[in-house]
Specification:
The chain has an eight-stranded mixed sheet, sandwiched between helices. Helix 3 links the parallel strand 2 and strand 3. It is built from eleven helices and eight strands. The longest helix is centred in the C-terminal third of the chain and has 34 residues. It is α/β, with parallel strands linked by helices. The chain is globular. It starts with a helix and ends in a 12-residue tail after the last helix. Helix 1 crosses helix 6.
């Protein structure tokens, strides 16, 4: 009976995390959600770009930002260089625009520390954070700022869209995963507040920005900082930005592990937000969207082990075990073929499901060993 209890608890929790929770969020959003008022606002904006050794693309990034559809006298750019050792700093200094400022931070302190430093000197009423590898749609900045018409909005997330430069299975898997994630975030935004944003593009009221622990992942913790002030974090679906997908499973795995380690660290350090009696729906979303998602590989292992122990009990358990093994084998075959094939067909989803669960598993183990991964290196 105990083994059956473990099996069904693990299975039901996995179904809840990946299927039932998104359905519930959309259902609650349609019934109880609130519309975010918006209007064109004459607010000054400081765009903060954190960069480390981005000489290959920093000028293209600045060109993209300076061409945005926003009043030039209301926008400036701060490039926070995390002790770059290549030509990044020099290229920024010589970019030819007095609206661009270089802030060099010595000591290789990581992205969050650089963002804190840039926010401290920024003059804009709205702080916009974006990555050096991200391309913004011309109207993205205006779309972000419009959402701040609602006084209860403290942070606005942009909508990231992945672009595959070449046909590859990993990129297509990433696109499919992100499409699922965006639909969930749109529902969470309508329901009340996001529990995290994409670090590629998001905006914060300067008077609501609070310095974040340099060891934590800023694009996750920022929503907690807003919730602490009774402010919402919402999604601007028309504030579109673009990132090239990673081409290989090893690169995607590395990125997923790094993000997961930092997110797990944030959940432990800011665990007070998991208290549903104090933070209500926000805590429920954190449990369902983040904590249980990162626990899913362990739930899967429990389900697999318990299923194996129950094989002699009932033909149903045999069928379920065969189904689990089939998904795992499909994912393994996808791993083996992803570097050789542009498309995996029906193997693409089990491949990417397996990749994300392995990444969460490795991240949890490495976190338990003391790894925190504060700094980063460009992968693209």
């Amino acid at each position: 009976m105990m083994i059956e209890f473990l099996f069904w608890t693990a299975c039901i929790t996995l179904v809840y995390v990946y299927l039932l929770f998104p359905v519930l969020v959309r259902l609650f959003a349609s019934r109880f959600g609130t519309i975010v008022s918006e209007a064109d606002l004459p607010l000054s904006v400081s765009i903060i770009v954190t960069a480390y050794n981005e000489e290959k693309g920093i000028l293209a990034k600045l060109e993209n930002l300076l061409a945005l559809d926003y009043p030039t006298h209301l926008m400036d750019v701060i490039v926070a260089s995390d002790a770059s050792s290549d030509a990044t700093d020099q290229l920024v200094l010589n970019c030819g625009s007095d609206r661009v400022q270089l802030l060099r931070i010595e000591g290789r302190n990581g992205k969050t520390s650089c963002q804190n430093a840039a926010a401290a000197i920024a003059r804009g009423e709205i702080l916009v954070f974006t990555d050096a590898t991200t391309r913004l749609d011309a109207g993205a900045l205006r779309a972000l700022v419009r959402r701040f018409y609602s006084a209860d909005v403290g942070c606005v997330a942009g909508r990231l869209m992945y672009v595959s430069r070449t046909e590859n299975a990993t990129g297509q898997g990433g696109e499919a995963y992100w499409d699922y994630e965006i639909k969930l975030r749109m529902a969470e935004s309508a329901l009340g507040s996001l529990v995290g944003v994409s670090g590629c593009l998001y905006a914060v009221r300067r008077n609501a920005y609070r310095p974040i622990n340099p060891g934590l992942i800023s694009d996750f913790v920022i929503s907690m900082k807003m919730r602490e002030q009774s402010l919402r974090t919402v999604l601007a679906a028309n504030a579109v930005c673009y990132e090239d997908t990673l081409n290989r499973g090893a690169q995607e795995m590395s990125m997923r592990v790094r993000v997961a380690i930092r997110s797990i660290n944030a959940l432990f350090c800011e665990k007070r937000f998991l208290n549903p009696w104090r933070y209500g729906l926000f805590a429920w979303q954190l449990w369902s969207h983040k904590l249980l998602r990162y626990a899913s590989p362990f739930l899967w292992l429990i389900a697999l082990g318990a299923n194996f122990a129950l094989l002699s009990r009932n033909p149903l358990y045999v069928a379920l075990f065969v189904g689990q093994i089939a998904v795992i084998l499909a994912g393994i075959v996808g791993f083996a073929l992803q570097s050789r094939l542009a498309k995996l067909g029906i193997l693409s989803r089990p491949y990417y499901l397996l990749l994300t669960n392995i990444a969460s598993f490795l991240a949890a183990l490495r976190y338990a060993k003391g790894e925190r991964m504060v700094t980063w290196k460009p992968l693209r």
